[in-house]
Fold this sequence. Notes:
With 708 residues, the protein is an alpha+beta fold. 47% of the residues lie in helices and 9% in strands. It contains 28 helices and 13 strands. The chain has a seven-stranded antiparallel β-sheet, with no helix packed on it. Strand 4 (72-78) and strand 5 form a beta hairpin. The protein is elongated.
Amino acid sequence: MADNAKMQPDDAQSGLEAVQDDDALEGGQEDQIAPSPEVAAPRSGGNRHVDVGSFRIFPDLRLPEFDCGPSQAFVAEGTKRDDGPIFALLANPLLPTRSELLRVLSGVKVAGQLDLLDYEIIYWPPLDRSTIICFYAKPGGSKVFTDGGKKAVIDEHDLPLAVIAPIINILTVLSDKNLAHRNLRADNLFFADEQRTTVVAGDCSSCPAGFAQPLVYEPIDRMTAEPAGRGAGALSDDLYALGITIAALGIGHTPLSKFSDKEIIDMKLARGSFQALVGHEKLPLTLIEPIRGLLCDDFEERWGLAELNNWLDGRRVKPVQSNSDRRAARAQNMGGRDYYTARGLANGVTNNWAAALAPLRDGVIEVWLRRGLNDAERSKAMSEAMRQMAWSGSDKRTAEDVLVARGIAILDPNGPVRHKTFSAMLDGLGPMLSYDVQHGRGPQAFSEVIIRDLPTFWFSRLSGFRPEIQSQQQVYKMLRYYMQQQTMGYGYERCLYALVKNQHCLSPLVENEYVIHIAQLLPALEKIATVTPHSSWPIDRHIAAFIAVRLQDDTEPQLTALQNPGDEVEFSRSIISLLALVQWRHGPDSLPHLGLWVARLMEPATKVFHSKERREKVEREIPKLAKRGNLVELYNLINDEKERRRDQDEFIAAVEEYSAADNEVFDIESSGASRMILAEQIGRQVASFASTMIALLTVSALFMMIVW
């Protein structure tokens, strides 16, 4: 990637925040700010720069008008090819990027989308760590929209061709690949040319889906999730955002901007998105029809691309049905507020977690669903949830929390998974976990959601077909198993890398190296090996889980052996095996510093041999192979099946020989008294026999003398 990226020193002050004050210029303009000519990338020397691949970046020259949420833009230029005016967008290393969109959009021209020329992993000196940086072609015109303006930027009659048509094109391209933009909003649009005839959408891949979106742009089912957990979404979510974008461009400012997020949520839940909008904003008459269709809160009834194209062509489009949830005949009070819709009540339960237990447990909400909403199906589901709590084998507090969480899922099945303070869409669980872990909140909330099997219940309650979620259902089935295994290679770490494809390894050893791909792991460890004490193994929980997910090989035997750290021989052999397997698959061929690191910790692995002579021979070979940096050879040295079998056979033979000798010694030493008795008995018998024979001989001799 960009290991050769380097900073060219100069006297200029470094930093991501060198030109932050430029943002202040935007507030005083009614229209928009064109990119300032003073910050054009200088081709003559004099400014600090970072060279990476075919590009050069100037960290001291910011372009805040091209910022996208937490991602910051800098002046850049091409060094080996003529890509025209470009800028670099630096991703926040504490947030995962969207790998699928980076791959699809990189190097491809798509009408309606800003051209993503390339992206690299780069060491960024001001942060003293590596991250991803995206290189975009600068649009021909200025930024379309600056919030706070007092008039429409584009005439309402020009919006269809200038804005809606190009946006339809990019949404069509992405939806054909089962992807969503999820960063579509008025202030992320740029004029494609100086004549302002058409627009292009800005970055959509440098941070989690929906993370940078103001809450008003999020559909009613996703808006109550935390920003990091809003999920990848689908075409219907982009179409909703397009509806808000059209409204913003038509009125000249972000709709409902004078209200807080909480107030916007309450208004949408109580009245529906479209009614909340028209109740406080004066929309252009020519745009009301598409805005109404795109802001339908039922995603299955919301306008799709076909309806939008029909409207552009002037054909009559079927009007949408009611834009709000069914209202109950009587209100259900929660936390001092009255709620008339199930979705609104779900939000009330979430905001009053402890107080909501009593009406759920006592059947008050079940009765309200049956009588107030006339919803027998959900009433039955609520009754079943209470019955399961009563028969739950878990502790009372856990059972109560599960009841509240399941009650929310029954009331709002298409909303986020909510458990106490945790709130994330099913397809946003991974980014939410990543955010919590990297921002100091830890994995506890996520762990409770998974251990209590809440995603499975949410899947069972989903209404309508949600391809963006169904496609990941198989992955979610394994999460609880991973969380139940607390050894290396499992736990929340395994869940994190399984859910977030572009998550860099968070091991303290390599975190600053931004290791996303398995092929980057060993080079990063090789680099770290030059400055890290070799007192512990170069594998921890994060690296083990990262290898288990990213490596396309069966690593279960090694992970199983890691479950018993007390078995030094198998534990060390398994670690060496994992590292050797990665090198065998992805290289590089020589890792001398990592080889030396591993060699210094290999002593337990050599105990696999019983023969002292063989063990000493292996110990003499280890330093030689370590210098070559070939972990595969090191592993084969201690895992030579032929030598191990011969050593085992010789050991068994030696054990048998020793056992026989030991038994003989034991017999001799442990049976002395019985042998004396036996000797006496035999002695008496011999003496008796001898005396008898002597007597016979004597009698015979006397007899012969008398006869003769």
